[in-house]
Every structure is written in C-alpha cells, then in structure tokens.
Amino acid sequence: MEGNYAIILAAGKGKRMNCNINKQFIKIENKPVLYYSIDTFSKNELIDGIILVCAKDEIEYCRHEIVERYNFTKVLDIVEGGAERQDSVLNALESLKKHKCNIVLIHDGARPFVTNRILNDGIKYCKIYNACACGVKPKDTIKIKNKDGFSIDTVNRENTVLVQTPQCFNYKIILDCHEKILQQHIRVTDDTAVVEYCGNKVFLYAGSYDNIKITTPEDLQLSNRIVNNFKNN
Ligand code: CTP
Ligand code: MG
Q1: 27-33: average pLDDT
Q2: Which UniProt keywords apply (predicted)?
C-alpha cells in the first residue's frame, strides 16, 4: 500500500526575520515555531511519515530539541537542505525514494498554524487532480504598476489567490518535474510553479487566513495572537 508523506522545510536562512536564531526555532507560547506544524501532521491519521529538512549545522539541534523532545515518532528522517528552497525540496523528495510514496505534502516549517482540515482537503483533492495547493483570497485590491511607480491596471480579485502550503502532489509527478527543472536550470519560488512549468494543472482550495508564513518580526506578534485560537480548534 502506497502512503502519504509530508516534507516539512526548515532549512532557510530567515534573512527577512533579522534574528540571531533560525525563525523556525523561535518560541511561540514556549514551543518552537516548527513544533506546531510537525504536531499537526503527526496527529493526522492519513499521514504515514514526515521528512524534515534542516540546514546541515542545525540537524542535530533539531533532532534533540524538537524531534526527540516532543517524541515525534512519525519523523522518519532529517535531511540536509540546499541553497534555495527548491534544492531543499528535491533533497527531501529523493530521500522519499526509499519509501512507498503516493502523495507528498510539501509544507513550510515557517507556517505553524496549518490545520487538520487543510491536510485532509489537500490529500482529497490531490487524489482527484494530482496537484493542489491551499490559499486565500486577497483582501486588498491588487494593482499592477509600471517601472515608474504608477498604477497601470487593477486585477480582478475574484481571479486571484494568495498561495500557501501545504502543496500536495502525486509523488512521481513532482519528482519528475523537479528533476526536469533542475536540468533546465529553471528557478522557482514554490512547487506549484514546478509542476506548472511541466504542463500540469494545480487545483487551488481553501487554506486559512491564520495559516500565515512567519517571515518578518511583525509576523511573530501576529502569531502570538493566532496561537490561542489555534489551540482551541
Ligand atoms: N527553506 C528551505 N531551504 C531553503 C530556503 C527556504 O527549507 N534553502 C524553507 C524555509 O525554512 C521556510 C520555507 O522554505 O520554512 C519558506 O521560505 P521563506 O519563508 O522564504 O524562509 P527563508 O528563506 O528562511 O527566509 P528569507 O527568504 O527571509 O531568507
Ligand atoms: Mg526565502
């Protein structure tokens, strides 16, 4: 029986956070940012195993301070990240070759407030469409501007989505696409772009406004508010 596996990424440098420790290890209510998403994936019965991706010099810290401390037994492996996000993803996809993987959910470790509902929907839509990602409607009007700083157009908000993670894929498709873009030296910022580049369609489903990515210091203040809501859900 082929299973559903998660890749949780924590190998970035967090430059925009401007903090002396990796943003995934900063504490929200006494637990590291990375704890929250691993906990949610671990408790989901449809997830068979988790691959964590960390910077080389943080693998041991992560193993002791997160995986062992919170007894996350679904974490099968901690693999070394790469220079860019897509390199980190590819390392993890390769390490899944030794497991029988059908669906892979790729998630930013910097998004602590992903919910069980979002994971279940991701797996459900991936079974139908082979590729899906969650997201939310922008609340502000979106403009296109020219190089002089003037607005030249307004985007129809109904047709726009702020894409989040998890992004869920048929394992063979996402692995093939990643290998292909590597050979062609294509650079992307997320995995939907990888499969789209190779001609696949990505279904977009509802994420949540609380499923924020912790990127800059003000996101930490927001997280300290969201966490109370999150614990009650
Ligand atoms: N990530 C990764 N490997 C990289 C780059 C990013 O695993 N080489 C992960 C980050 O740890 C994060 C997620 O991808 O969980 C989303 O990336 P982002 O928010 O951009 O994190 P950073 O790249 O760490 O931050 P910044 O861009 O501000 O440096
Ligand atoms: Mg980045």
Answers
A1: 97
A2: Isoprene biosynthesis, Nucleotidyltransferase, Transferase
Domain span at residue 27?
3-231
pLDDT by residue (tens digit) across 68-94? Answer: 999 999 999 999 999 999 999 999 999
**Is pLDDT at 9 greater than 80 in this prediction?**
yes
CATH of the domain at 74: 3.90.550.10
Ligand closest to 11 (CA) is 1
pLDDT tens column, 150-185: 999 999 988 999 999 999 999 999 999 999 999 999
- Residue 81 CA, closest ligand 1 atom number: 3
Nearest CA to 156 out of 143, 167, 166, 147 is that of 143
pTM: 0.97
Q: How many domains does the chain have?
A: 1
Q: Is the CB of 12 under 6 A from ligand 1?
A: yes
Q: d(Cα 38, Cα 63) in Å, to the nearest integer?
A: 13
Ligand lying nearest the CA atom of residue 109? 1
CA of 21 to the centre of ligand 2 (A): 15
How far is residue 34's CA from residue 71's CA, in Å, rounded to a whole number? 14
Centre of ligand 1 to C-alpha 85, Å, is 6
